[in-house]
Design a protein that fits this description.
The protein is α/β, with parallel strands linked by helices. It has two domains: 184 residues, Aspartate Aminotransferase, domain 1 (Alpha-Beta Complex); 257 residues, Type I PLP-dependent aspartate aminotransferase-like (Major domain) (Aspartate Aminotransferase, domain 2, 3-Layer(aba) Sandwich), CATH 3.40.640.10. The chain is built from 15 helices and 14 strands. The strands form three sheets. The chain has a seven-stranded mixed sheet, with helices on both faces. Strands 1-2-3-13 form a four-stranded mixed sheet. Strand 7, helix 8 and strand 8 form a beta-alpha-beta unit. The two termini are 25 Å apart. The site of pyridoxal-5'-phosphate (PLP) has 14 residues, from helix 5.
């Protein structure tokens, strides 16, 4: 295992030992490629509310929250209690329908404006695969449009152009040709995809003009949360709604991050645009593994009549549904209170990060909405942008080196956010006023420390953003 160049060997001494032990039997020491890319030697001990502890005894205010599911923080008591009670009542799995199906279905369709009928799945990856298959079946067309820099899970059908290394000369000019995100993905899956630029109407208009009869759907994160956090420009989601409709294609919102987070009804409630199909995971289970996809009654009829196949031994298991019932009940009954915390503290931290960086003379862009945001630090030669509108701009603007330095300076002050420079920050309903104050105090100190370190050693960014081991 490599030594962290900014923290040194001793900081995670226990973690390093445990990680080495894990790596002897678990390939790479982590069971997700996304976790491996964090490059940080930290093993988890326990979490409580907005905080967690590593096995070296460090305590952190958590702004990563298990990649987002922990919308109520670590160990949410009501959800855990509800799951225990449900297991005691039902066991864990039956594969027969039961009351929980009805209860979660009713809560879900009440909260989410565009979902008349839904199906449960086990992960966001599965839900998105199911949504794309449904769109292809409904339209009878083969191709799905995705945005460069988006992430829709790790399936062969979608892990394309997620974080392509556009610094490489042959990938630099924008092209609708998808780039595989892993070795081992058959090229043939790429033939069923086209790549557009988020927030760039022209890139999509061109695709529809050339391939209009072949496009089944535009699959989009309504707020693109996998290249930092990128907000839709005013009118952009409405444009997506109109252009898909006018070409007879479907609009799929991947709400795996935004669902039950931007509002109880997700991005479609908060931003006011209703897709034909939407996918959910993360916040829906508050840490328990559950996902879903759903949409208009007309489109979902193909699932209802079993003309489109979707399944899974573990779909709609007791644990998942009991968790979702508790989560949705909480969101329905305490909506105002919960979103006052998520929106209010979210905005305070964003504002505080901006101020801290400005006071230290660090150029950055902090952007986000409600409980999710990102901070992009400017490279010395970064273009003069006031906001990031797509993956390419994120690339052109961001200094990975400065992000790393700020990340480790915050970590040493007890604030954890994901160390990967394009992975967003989340806040939970468990975060408190004192967490916010401690975070902003840490941010002021960390920004000054980073500014000082840059005077001593200017930013040196790597020449490539490719993830280790991923050939493109
Ligand atoms: C927008 C989006 N879609 C899909 C997925 C895949 O979800 P899962 O990791 O549950 O398979 C993710 C995961 O981070 C995501 O952010």
């Amino acid at each position: 295992m490599s030594t962290d160049r900014l923290l040194g060997d001793a900081y995670f001494a226990q973690s390093r030992q445990l990680f080495e032990r894990i790596s002897r039997t678990i390939a790479g020491g982590e069971s997700s490629y996304a976790r491996l890319k964090k490059g940080l030697e930290l093993c988890f001990d326990h979490g409580e509310g907005s905080h967690f502890w590593d096995i070296d005894g460090h305590e952190y205010i958590d702004y990563s929250l298990g990649y987002g599911p922990l919308i109520f923080g670590h160990k949410p008591k009501r959800v855990i209690q509800a799951v225990i009670e449900a297991i005691e009542r039902y066991g864990t799995i039956s594969t027969f329908p039961y009351e929980l199906d009805a209860e979660v279905g009713e809560l879900f369709t009440e909260l989410v404006p565009g979902v008349d009928l839904l199906r449960f799945a086990n992960s966001g990856t599965e839900a998105t695969m199911a949504a794309a298959r449904l769109a292809r079946a409904y339209t009878g067309r083969p191709k799905i449009v995705q945005m460069e820099g988006a992430y829709h899970g790790w399936a062969d059908t979608h892990l394309w152009s997620s974080h392509p290394d556009v610094w490489r000369p042959q990938l630099r000019p924008y092209s609708p040709r998808p780039i595989p995100g892993s070795r081992g993905i058959p090229e043939v899956y790429g033939e069923a995809l086209l790549i557009a630029q988020y927030n760039d109407r022209e890139s999509l208009e061109r695709l529809f003009a050339e391939h209009g009869n072949e496009i089944a759907a535009v699959l989009v994160e309504p707020v693109q949360c996998n290249s930092g956090v990128i907000l839709p420009e005013p009118g952009y989601l409405e444009f997506l709604r109109e252009i898909t409709r006018s070409y007879g294609a479907l609009l799929i919102f991947d709400e795996v991050i935004t669902g039950f987070r931007l509002a109880p009804g997700g991005a479609q409630e908060r931003l006011g645009v209703i897709p034909d199909i939407a996918t959910y995971a993360k916040a829906l289970g508050a840490g328990f593994p559950i996902a879903a996809f759903g949409g208009s009654r007309e489109v979902m009829q193909l699932e209802a009549t079993n003309q489109v196949m979707h399944g899974g031994t573990y779909t709609a298991n007791v644990v998942a549904l009991a968790a979702a019932r508790a989560v949705l009940t909480e969101m329905k009954t305490r909506r105002d209170e919960l979103w006052a915390v998520l929106n209010g503290f979210g905005e305070r931290v964003r504002e505080g990060l901006r101020e801290a960086c400005e006071a230290a003379g660090l150029r950055c862009i902090v952007q986000g909405i409600g409980p999710v945001w990102h901070i992009f630090f400017a490279k010395p030669d970064a273009p003069a942008l006031d906001r990031i509108r797509n993956y390419r701009e994120a690339h052109a603007y961001t200094s990975i080196d400065i992000y790393d330095r700020f990340n480790r300076a915050m970590l040493r002050r007890g604030v954890y956010f994901h160390p990967y420079h394009l992975e967003r920050w989340f806040i939970s309903t468990a975060h408190s006023e004192s967490d916010v104050q401690a975070t902003l105090q840490a941010a002021h100190e960390a920004a000054l420390e980073v500014a000082q370190s840059l005077r001593e050693q200017p930013a040196a960014d790597p020449a490539s953003l490719a993830m280790p081991g991923i050939a493109q």
